[in-house]
Queue: 2 jobs
Job 1
Amino acid sequence: MTAAKMKWTCGLVPTSCYKVADEPADLLHPSSKPKKPVSTQTSFHRLSLSDLSNPNSTLSEDLSISLKGSNLHAFTLAEMRVITQNFSSSNFLGEGGFGPVHKGFVDDKLRHGLKAQSVAVKLLDLDGSQGHREWLTEVLFLGQLRHPHLVKLIGYCCEDEHRLLVYEYMPRGSLENQLFRRFSVSLSWSTRMKIAVGAAKGLAFLHEAEKPVIYRDFKASNILLDSDFTPKLSDFGLAIDGPEGDETHVSTRVMGTEGYAAPEYIMTGHLTAMSDVYSFGVVLLELLTGRRSVDTTRTKREQNLVEYARPFLNDARKLTRIIDPRLEGQFSEKGAQKAAALAYQCLSHRPKTRPNMSTVVKTLEPLTAFDDASIGTFVYTAPPQQQHEKPGYRPRTPPPRSPVNRQSDSDRNRRREVHKNVMNSPLHSGVRRR
Ligand SMILES: Nc1ncnc2c1ncn2[C@@H]1O[C@H](COP(=O)(O)OP(=O)(O)OP(=O)(O)O)[C@@H](O)[C@H]1O
Ligand SMILES: [Mg+2]
């Protein structure tokens, strides 16, 4: 499947809703910038943030016209109030870095032709860490990309300083909530693999688009689940166009979430699609173990999931010790071995030896079956990096099994000491700590 293409033409812009500049201050207070018309672009390609980032120009296109082919609705603030019953607390779904999320409802009484459906409305917290840039990035990417494994953006609101996003409602919330919430029913093996395959397909679609996209924020809380557990990627605020032509990577300020961001990206700021593959490996580990990527309630040695789990992944006998006890043994052993070997490869320190997302999809697809016989014989081939990565590696005695799901929601806000020096450099000012 390829990205939906659309034609965009010059139009009028809502007065406070225009061009992204490099300085965050300009983004957060766009009305302080002089409004200049930009050159008309009529080419038939996906409009991206870089198309709008000429510091000498402002985005004068009305997004509702620019993104016409996407059928996005540009709602007014008054309409948003109707949709969410004035952001009533009874409709509150949760809150992340962007701001609060409320459930709402739209139908054609609100806008002609609008399908009657539940929606989730994200409201930018004007005092929060994100701003106009993340909002615009999200509108541009999700407004133009359509895929069964990407959450559908229905519309947006851009009025004065207010920025909102309206998505299809995902009844089962985030994978994070389903996997780690203390009183949630445990996800079955097949469901976990279904989620892994679907999310992998979403990433593969982004990486293989005509104009490739690096998602940059792949994590359990950004994978939303439909009523039948079909996963969809949400939160495109950090997404970025992939390298073009002869470029091998994109150089950026490091942004993302601790515990999921690839080590080479954290160290150098060099971003490739393989950074997403690493993050996918982390989520695959979370699905296999039922443990969070970073869990400060555990003993020091078990706090970082990747470091803790890596030695178990290539040993069939040891692997069962780290499989989520909430599965109560109801999983395919061969499937778990294959998935663990795949996670190991995705988490390689050498980005070039990580598999691409299409390979990940192909490897995972047969694993949704619970029946070992249907998965076939498992043959693990140790990737060459094994020797390079762990010189003198000795298998460690596995730690005693700890109870899962001890982490409370407040842990999300706890600061971690790991990588402290690196993380505190200006290059890393965008890394979110959990
Ligand atoms: N389309 C949606 N349908 C249903 N629930 C949603 C939807 N979008 C977000 N939510 C819920 O809203 C809450 C906040 O989501 P949000 O994406 O803003 O933050 P987050 O992913 O938890 O954190 P972060 O800021 O790090 O991405 C989550 O609990 C999520 O399940
Ligand atoms: Mg999110």
Job 2
Amino acid sequence: MDKRDRDLIRALPKVELHVHLEGSIQPTTLLKLAKRNGVDLGFHTEAQMRLRYQFRDIDHFMRLYEEMTFALRQPEDFRLIAYEYGITASAQGIRYAEVTFTADTHFRLKGIPFDEMIDAVWQGAAAAAADTGIRLRFVIDHIRGLAVEACFRTAEWCIAGRDRGVVALGMSGREAGFPASLYGEAIVWAQAHGVPFVPHAGEVTESGDIWDVLQFKPARIGHGIRAAGDTRLITFLSEHGITLDICPSSNLLLGNVPREEIHPIRQLWEAGVPVTINTDDPPMFSTSLVDEYALCAAQYSFSIEELAGISIQGVRSSLLNADDRVALEHTFRGELAQMGIEAKVGGV
Ligand SMILES: [Zn+2]
């Protein structure tokens, strides 16, 4: 890919729907916060940190991820990481993002009250919006593997946080042995209070995990790449317009798509499944949204028109209210027209 194509990708107006706040922390910021809070992460330089982030598999990744979050202590820390994500994302051409925040990790391991954290990240989002115009919203996720009560706690926070940018209940963590249906009561309870459900599913295990979350009518699904081997499921996702928020580098680096295999994003898109392109945890996978779009162009033959269409799909699949979604799509289409790009939405 030449520089001109990359510049074009950078200039494309984009949304990001699958990115983790804690996983978006810049290495320099993480080291600075650890030092300020007197937390020993076991590494003191960026080089040492990179050596440590040689993930063996998803369990290893999750252990490192949890360790890393110990650096966050003060409200200012949470404000700062939300602000920095907003600034970095804006430089990638991202205008709107739904950022997953695992509040329960900080509550459980460090006793930080939810209100303190959500106030802080919402302030960070407001500061980033004031500086760049980017809009950030938050998905508060429950970690599979924890007790049902923890899911109720997170669901309650989602309801309470709606006045501070919270738009959905997420679900991440270990798929094997912990299907979303284990937490069904809490999911349904949150939905009854108007909180949409946006789980990770079908990232690691088989398509059965995706079928399991579908009973809760999720607004979107994080990853969902295991759908690729299940033609009945592909048809279902396509016919019901259920979006998969796909993170190619994350899948490759964690071995969820083996190196020798082709990532199924193109196959799913061609089959008419709505997909979006995302980073998951950008510095941890040494990536950015521009990199992910460029990867999809270079490795999976997406044209600039098709990438623009995926970007429009992101707007349509977002949890903005209907008026805001229409307005944002209108803005995107206006910008694309000025760039001379006609978005091709959908693979069929
Ligand atoms: Zn994720």
